[in-house]
Amino acid sequence: MAEAALNTAPNVELELTDGFHLVIDALKLNGVNTIYGVPGIPITDFGRMAQAAGIRVLSFRHEQNAGYAAAIAGYLTKKPGVCLTVSAPGFLNGLTALAHATTNCFPMILISGSSEREIVDLQQGDYEEMDQLAIAKPLCKAAFRVLHAESIGIALDRAIRAAVSGRPGGVYLDMPANLFGQVISAERGRRSLVKVIDGAPAQIPAPDAVKRALDVLQGAKRPLIILGKGAAYAQADEAICALIQKSGAPFLPMSMAKGLLPDTHPQCAGAARSTVLRDSDVVMLIGARLNWLLSHGKGKAWGETPKKFIQIDIEPKEMDSNVEITAPVVGDIGSAVAALLEGMGGNWPVPPADWINGVNAKRDENIAKMAPRLMNNNSPMDYHAALGVLRTIVKERPEAILVNEGANTLDLARGVIDMYRPRKRLDVGTWGVMGIGMGYAIGAAVETGKPVLAVEGDSAFGFSGMEIETICRYKLPVCIVVFNNDGIYRGTDVNKAGSDPATTVFVKGARYDRMIEAFGGVGVNAVSPDELRRAVNAAMDSGRPTLINAVIDPAAGSESGRIGNLNPQSKLRKS
Description:
- The chain has 24 helices and 19 strands.
- By secondary structure, the chain is an alpha/beta fold.
């Protein structure tokens, strides 16, 4: 009877899964619905499978640009953007973006295929052999290698936690080619997956630290609040606005913090930057670091007035990095600002009238001086005339996202174009990296669904210009304006030692607009502010991929924009 029962039992096949599907399942379980990358061995099939499973997979022309898209996705969403690359050269291309994400505190995960460990460790010459984990470690917040399919779930969990917790940053996940093909039972696979719970827990500041900060702020005669991109990343917009308004202090937004409060807010001191840095006596930093962008908190830019600094940051090691911080407040920005607001109570003394009136007078004076330069209709355009047009367009379209990079194009736009909403201005960040433009534009369009205006110097555009094909392929609502002055800084340099062009000079009269036409986008050549205005408005209204070649006077630029003092050769020439 027993033998007969065995013979008649149904043939039950064990359900199986593999590394490909476990990575996909782990990503989906943790809410990752978009991947940026470049296909190739050994991850081409993974991209196809992820797409079939409902994950949006955007294929780029270069891994670095895919990485920049993932990095800015992390900044905009507070969830790690994911970049997928092939091994060795593809990994190295993505590594610049990973290091950029870590430096700027953007959560990002770089997943790269790699060669088999046993061959790499014996240096036997595998295809694209490289010890990628060892190379990545110094350049990111954390790095992990996954050798077994059953470890995929916990590895992704650790990567997400590392990317978003504390001070956010980039994480590298190394996945050797044979991992993807490993087969285990589907049940074991399901049990191995992990959903991240409370990946970035609140870090509440100590009550004593909050009281100390409020005591210092209350004793100020000339207070100043500086907002960094960390304040924008925190998405504690209402609390930060309430704190600034209650304090009555002038505030200075760093470039990617512009729009937390409108740049036209009566307390905004963006147009009086030199005055408030020089003359303030108490400075509160919210999500801003005293790095080179703020002259390290010392030197001529900060004047002779003794300063007391209050700093709100989630990273304790950031305190006293350049100057003594009188009142460090360690905690996440949302919790810290909420605690400060509560401690301020119902009545908070307004700063002295002579400080507020003096800052306002300098701001209004500088704005009045600038206004005529933004109104000319010269052809070819200078930077101020072109930026004056874009300033008006951004004011009329405050929900659009502005991506900005270049030398003069970046430095002047920071001061000219006002922002009205948080996280709408995206630029080169802490390192000042050129080439972020098209990756950022794609990531911003995909993650937000908002129209994107990318304002590019012609040199900066060259780093990622081929991604206009990607923009056209995915029909993204991106309008690119290339400020074309025939070169780097200016297009008038001459090589007096030979017949080659000067090192800073490009092809005269180049027509960047015709590049996008090759891919089905709209190209426009604009030689006057009026033409630029019409072209940008038409592009933003249509939502079609558009590239506008904005012809700028080749002599209009200056070397290194406003940071020429950082160029040693520039110093020598001027001495």
